[in-house]
Each structure stands twice: as structure tokens, then as C-alpha cells.
Amino acid sequence: MKHDPRYPIGKFQAAESYSLSEREDFLARIQSLPARLEAAVSGMNDAQLDTPYREGGWTVRQVVHHVADSHLNAYIRVKWTLTEESPIIKPYDEKAWATTPETAGDPALSLSFLKSLHAKWVVLLGSLTAQDLERQFIHPATQRAVRLDQLMAMYAWHGDHHLAHILELKKQKNWS
């Protein structure tokens, strides 16, 4: 099977349920992502930051900004789900968001934002009970219900997924 550069760690597959240790692992991965992402781009110059991780893909700079935007939306989805009964969430056009003017700027802006966002998000997620984690929202594009424990799993994967895009590019280009 040929390696697909779009999915260096494979595609996300939600499980029917998650154990306490799996949920703790998701939380730890979400908590550590800002530092891991910052380490991955540390020392990269503008030419490297403006290199797409694959042909037709986003640049490293856009990936960093995308992670911040995506995780902001996920945080808001958690808040809606905790304060409303099975809300229908608002999707966003991630490709269009990846082209707004600030995504051409310094990724340090999104890294700083991500540190604060994840600190707050981890406190919130870490305080949820098993019953809270069963709460769900509806995604309008698929009409599927997504539980909060599945969202935790998805965003633990999402951070690792985009981090792998950057690390694979660095390995491919022999950038240390």
C-alpha cells in the first residue's frame, strides 16, 4: 500500500466508546500539542514555512494557522454542547479560512493563541464527567451526532495529524 502524504498517521476513525486511559491520553496529547508544534517549526525560515507539506497542500505556515483556527472551532463546539441540547454546530470553510490575510503572517501568533486556547480547553475537558462526555452535537454536513469523547479523540488525532505533516516534510527535505 502506497503512503498517502495527506494522512501520514492514517485517517481518523471514531470508536463506539473510549476507556478512561484512552480519554486521559487524548487530553495529554491535546495539552502537549502547542509545545510539540512550536518545537517542530522552531528555527524554520520563511522559505521553509512557505513550503507546502505536499504537492497541492498547505504551507507549513498555513498548517500552523489552521490548527489554531480548527481547535478554536472545536473549543466552541464543546461549549455549545455543554450549554445546549444536541446543538447543530456551524461548520466553517477551512480552505477559505487558510487564505485569510493573517495566515500569511508569523505562525508565532497562532502558536501563542494555541497555548492559551489549549490551556483553557484542557481545564474544561479535564473537568468533564463520563456523563458530560456522552453529550453530543449534530454536524449539519453529515447529520451525524458526535459525542464529546469522540471530539476529544478526533482533535487529539487532528493535532498529531498536522504535526506529522510538518515533521514528514522536514524529514523529506532533510531540515533539522
Order of helices and strands: HHHHHHEEH
Tell me, what's the shape? Answer: globular
Domain count: the total is: 1
Number of helical segments with 4 or more residues: 7
Share of residues in helices:
55-70%
Strand order in space, largest sheet: 1-2
Going by CATH, the homologous superfamily would be dinb family like domain
The main β sheet shows up as: 2 strands, antiparallel
CATH architecture: Up-down Bundle
Q: Quick one: CATH class?
A: Mainly Alpha
CATH topology category name: Four Helix Bundle (Hemerythrin (Met), subunit A)
Task: Show unreliable segments.
Answer: none
Query: How much is the radius of gyration in Å?
Result: 16 Å
In total, how many beta strands?
A: 2
Span between N and C termini? 28 Å
Would you tell me the structural class of the helices and strands? mainly alpha
Amount of beta strand: under 5%
**Overall pLDDT metric:** 96
